[in-house]
Model the fold of this input.
Amino acid sequence: MGVDRFLGWAGLLLLGYGGVCLLMFLTQRSFIYFPRPAADPSSRLELQVEGKRVLVAHRPHPGPRGLIYFGGNAEDVSLTRAELAALLPDTALYLLHYRGYGGSEGSPNEAALRADALALYAHVAKRHSAVTVVGRSLGTGPAVHLAATRPVHRLVLLVPFDSLLAVARATMPWLPVDLLLIDRWDAAAEAPLVRAPTTIVAAAFDRVVPPRHAEALHRAFRPGVARLVVVPDLDHNTPILDSLAIRAALQGL
Done:
């Protein structure tokens, strides 16, 4: 009787654990992407990608310099545009509203965001000969993918990760994330293909993406391609204009 009771409880626990795993599998993208509306819907470009209307917060400027920006998972890039415009007055700005964000159609996922990044690059490269690509937090994934597959002038990564899988393993060690995770954003796997000069800015005490992930990403680049700056007083969500290290990285200093 005791053995039967034990097996019954064990079966219930396994069933419950399996239910949790299934729930996480089905809802995982809601933990990765947090779509935001655009607080400033002015001056936007519209791209058609795979039948979807994808919007880009834009600040036009003539000349060779263009900057493509991929934001964090809960970032409204229409607001970030103002920060970049103040910092880079001689650069045209293109900030992607991920699918489901800021009026862009569709739902965010890795394959869709990769396609959108490539479409945006094609648009920008026709108009500017020196294209800088910036990725912040979640934006690490599309930024590294773009720099690995297209010729870019510079790559800047702010509070980045080596892979979303590595972050998930550390955050949820009790789940079999290797089996469950669909969007892996394995930036470290693509980093060796990047040839553009790269600056990585990490926060020393980042609780969202600990700096060991930026360090692992830095090691994945070919020797001499990337430099890592670990900043003691930087927070994961520090505004661009409030960080000397971020400003210097974006200005190419």
